[in-house]
Amino acid sequence: MRRVLYLAIPVAMLLLHSCQCSRTPDAIVELRAYRLDSALMRGEGPTQVAREHPEFLKLWGEVLGSRDAAQQIPMFLQFADDADMQALEDSILRVFPSTTAYTQQLSKAFGVLKGQIPDLQIPKIYYFNGGFNTSIILADSMLGIGLDRFLGADCPYYPQLGIPHYLARTMSPAHIAPTAISSWLETEYPQPLGAATTLETMLHEGSILYATRLALKDLPDSLALGYSAQGLEWLEKNEHPVWVYLSEKKLLYERNSLIVNQLTHPAPFTNVFGQDSPGQVASWIGYRIVAQYMDKHPNITLAQLLAMHDGQEILKNAKYNP
Predict the structure, then answer these.
(1) What are the backbone angles phi and psi of residue 194, rounded to the nearest 5°?
(2) Average pLDDT score over residue span 105-113
């Protein structure tokens, strides 16, 4: 059974030239997609959505704070009648009068992945209004996209909610596909539970980034990068000294979650490398290692890569040389 996940923070997408090539032909995937944010706000919307999409409505209700199935329809009626939520839906409709282009982009990306991973489960897509509670809902065969969290970096709601700029910067329509694809891959190929080392974490994230880049091969880097242009420039300039620092300070095998998170989680900058650095410096290094590993091992499939959890084995065979 797939874990149900609610992702409130966009996952940084790293798109570089190293994984431009596809190893197998793309599959043809036509996603089933449902626009539920506007459907909910019309007339008997909550009743209609409950009748047509009961499983997703249950998850949606949990996002909005109601785990009692008997109370969800009244809660949704109240949500649809709320003046603030109506104003939010107006904002959503101005930015997203249609979601067809995003569904087409996701269909193409999942087609790339399905060509690489024939057994990959392809989800149904649900566009919804989560009241700013979550960006993504993930469950068995369902991928929900909270359009209210992709309104654009300059959306006036975000600073009012206290969302920092380094996160709001990636909360734009262009980041829907990278966030959705990487989030789905995380559920298909999760990192094993337990106290992972920095190396294991950065290579896991690097593998997800590699697969996401492959899936979105036609997306311009400037639209899909989780790093700013300045951050990427810093990373490229400092790749070697960062690697030396991680190695010499023995941070690669650190299991303290606070230290691992400082190196791999979204942040305005990576503390040990100063305020000019971007966040998630180690994740970028992980991506670079994975890309070199795949370049040197063309017989390794994407599915095999994503299922690997032996960070030391990947590092050894990548012969990483920044």
Answers:
(1) 125, 175
(2) 96
